[in-house]
Write a structure and sequence with these properties.
Length: 692
């Protein structure tokens, strides 16, 4: 047996070379560390155990060793020996197999048992192992991130597995729910007009981190910040998963579609003090996690999942930035959406920082320059930073856009001024800083909450299948069932629901800002009223492809709205204008039913906006009636250079295909006023100058 060598502390993780593999892991408090080498992922014990001596294999707090003769594909893990002193924040357990925090691939045993990492005793047989990977073997064929401006971006939030897992996807069984299966559906995304997919978590996560008998479907339960999730791969686990993920990225890029990852750097699947010991907890609990002040055996829980990563500790900051570098450099992703990003602004004691080191590390990192950075600018403990998130590069999920548009469309009072602001890029939130119009990530629905169909079909959540007696999920849904709770055969109710869906989509896609569409909303996908389907890996959450025919009218509506949006010069050309500059150049005017007199009374439900293209050759007028009776809107006069007057391009009250037409085919509108039906949106176009 060849004697292991001293090795190097850098780089962290497992690094193969021509003569063997270098391993390095961080642990400040460990007294002894062992490297475990396995022949098979189901082995009950390692084939070889290499004990690292502190005097020879430790530099600072990094434990390292070089093992000659090892090759890519080798399975390995760590054991760490140290004090089990929960009152002092240490939870070493030398019987537990620990994943490498920097491992590039994870192998999952055939009989993986999460519970085995929670109870006393050895768990080798049931524990995941890390895999040595040679990252230089893949041929990218010239691929590179696309660097599309936000102004030209249409985001589609989707679940890799749920997108193609339904039998109606038409894919072979081995492709359903996989990265390769997603590739087969790229033509659909491209035809829809999508320019970026935002993938729910694809870091390796623990599917057993869910109530008994259910599955963690969403994936907000990370086991590794580097390895792609093997459950979305045809091969299941190991190094081959990386190739399948990279094949997907390469194929999406060839279609002009960017890849944004929903990343979870705020907590891990190890949960609270009763959770499993799988990696960070067993290596250096006090370094990696925020602990409760005065109660070191407990975990600060700003994530709502049991633990919170100690993100502004120097070692954890490095872990996060190294992970981001990996996904950009080695996996070619185009951007990141940071789950509960406000947690990253908290110090070790949980206090919000005005200049959080980890956020500025990300903001100023040259490797990440030009990468899309999106913050979910709040956390589960009440910190809310929408409109005030740190830095110059971050875009923000605009939760206020979601709430205001939902309430306005369903008919709530007192919202006209707020909705006008949201449709114009939320200048009250972002106008105080020199931000671009696309600063706001506009959305009405996301994975967390009702789908758009359910938003207009249910007054109450229906989460009984989650096993928590309907106590989980949001209660503040701002939904309206249009008169009947759940599915109905009443044609009047169904017609109203379809109109409300079209109204919501109009607000979303035609407003200033970057729109994000939830997977399946374009065909009225339903979750049966479940607004917290994180544990429903079944038809409740999957994309039902038969809906493309059943709701072809809504699908056509979405395609048409995106095409209209793309006519705007602020979308077609990256002018680098601030929101304030764009509003001025576009000559934006606000109205009520009367010109120049926006009705801001509490009981008002109407709004109109007139704006020009940046070149001045197109004039657009938006009339929105959220009232339950028709309203007559005064029409603005057009300049003498106008060609043919106003034409109606969009009317959400009309049946398909008359509801949306190409601008050149729009029906002429004459007279000083135009009647807008109850609960509907009308868009008029006018050519001012040479035809496009």
């Amino acid at each position: 047996m060849i004697t292991p060598l001293r090795g190097q502390p850098s780089p962290l993780g497992a690094t193969p070379g021509p003569d063997g593999v270098n391993f390095s892991v961080y642990s400040r408090a460990a007294q002894r560390v062992e490297l475990l080498l396995y022949d098979d992922v189901d082995d009950a014990e390692p084939r070889r155990v290499i004990s690292l001596e502190s005097r020879r294999h430790r530099s600072y707090h990094y434990w390292h060793v070089f093992v000659p003769g090892l090759r890519p594909g080798q399975l390995y893990a760590w054991r760490a020996y140290g004090p089990f002193e929960p009152d002092r924040g240490q939870r070493f357990d030398s019987q537990k197999v620990l994943l490498d925090p920097y491992g590039r691939a994870v192998a999952r045993p055939s009989d993986y048992r999460r519970a085995a990492a929670q109870v006393m005793g050895r768990n080798d047989r049931w524990a995941c192992k890390s895999v040595v990977v040679d990252m230089d073997r893949y041929d990218w064929e010239g691929d590179a991130p696309l660097r599309r401006p936000f102004a030209q971006t249409i985001i589609y939030e989707m679940h890799v597995g749920g997108f193609t897992r339904h039998p109606s996807s038409g894919l072979a069984p081995e492709l359903r729910g996989t990265y390769a299966g997603l590739v087969q559906k790229i033509p659909y995304l491209k035809d829809l007009g999508i320019t970026a997919v935002e993938l729910l978590p694809v870091f390796q996560f623990d599917e057993q981190d869910a109530p008994a008998g259910l599955t963690n479907y969403w994936g907000y339960s990370p086991m590794s910040f580097f390895a792609p999730h093997g459950g979305y791969s045809r091969c299941g686990s190991g190094a081959e998963v990386l190739d399948e993920f990279r094949d997907m990225v390469k194929a999406l890029h060839r279609a002009g579609i960017e890849v944004i990852l929903d990343v979870v750097y705020n907590h891990t699947t190890e949960n609270d003090e009763h959770g499993p010991t799988q990696s960070l907890r067993g290596l250096d609990n006090r370094t990696y996690y925020m602990l409760e002040p005065g109660r070191r055996y407990g975990y600060a829980n700003y994530s709502g999942t049991g633990n919170t990563l100690n993100a502004n500790h120097a070692v954890v900051r490095r872990l996060i930035t190294d992970s981001l570098h990996f996904w950009v450099r080695d996996m070619h992703v185009d951007g990141f959406r940071f789950d509960l990003a406000s947690i990253l602004s908290r110090d070790e004691s949980g206090r919000p920082l005005s200049n959080p080191p980890v956020l500025w590390d990300i903001e100023s990192d040259p490797v990440l320059a030009g990468t899309k950075l999106i913050a979910e600018a709040w956390d589960a403990a009440g910190l809310y930073q929408v409109g005030s998130f740190v830095g110059d590069s971050w875009k923000e999920w605009n939760g206020q856009f979601r709430d205001d548009v939902r309430a306005f469309v369903r008919g709530d009072a007192g919202l006209v001024a707020r909705v006008a602001d949201r449709l114009m890029g939320s200048p009250q939130l972002y106008g105080g800083r020199p931000r671009e119009p696309a600063q706001s990530i506009n959305f009405i629905t996301s994975h967390d909450g009702f789908t758009l169909n359910d938003l207009v079909s249910y007054n109450e959540k229906h989460n009984e299948a989650n096993g928590e007696h309907n106590r989980d999920g949001h209660n503040h849904n701002l939904s309206w069932n249009c008169g009947v709770e759940g599915p109905t055969n009443d044609p009047a109710v169904e017609a109203l629901r379809a109109r409300q869906v079209r109204n919501c989509l109009s607000h979303l896609i035609l407003s200033l800002g970057t729109p994000m569409l939830l997977m399946g909303d374009e065909v009225r996908r339903t979750q049966g009223g479940n607004n917290n389907a994180y544990c429903q890996d079944n038809a409740t959450s999957w994309f039902d492809w038969t809906l493309l025919q059943r709701h072809a009218d809504i699908l056509r509506w979405v395609k048409g709205l995106i095409a209209l949006r793309n006519l705007r010069e602020s979308v077609r050309t990256d002018h680098h204008l601030t929101l304030a500059e764009l509003m001025s150049i576009a000559q934006v005017e606000l109205h009520g039913v009367a010109l120049g007199r926006p009705d801001l009374a509490h009981d008002s439900h109407s709004l109109a906006i007139t704006a020009s293209s940046l070149s001045g050759d197109l004039r657009m007028h938006f009339a929105i009636n959220a009232y339950w009776e028709p309203l007559d809107f005064e029409l603005p006069a057009l300049p003498p250079s106008a060609v043919g007057g106003w034409r109606r391009v969009v009317d959400s009250s009309r049946p398909s295909p008359q509801d949306l037409v190409e601008p050149r085919l729009g029906e002429p509108v004459s007279g000083p006023t135009h009647r807008v039906a109850e609960r509907s949106v009308v868009v008029l176009f006018a050519q001012v100058g040479p035809a496009r």
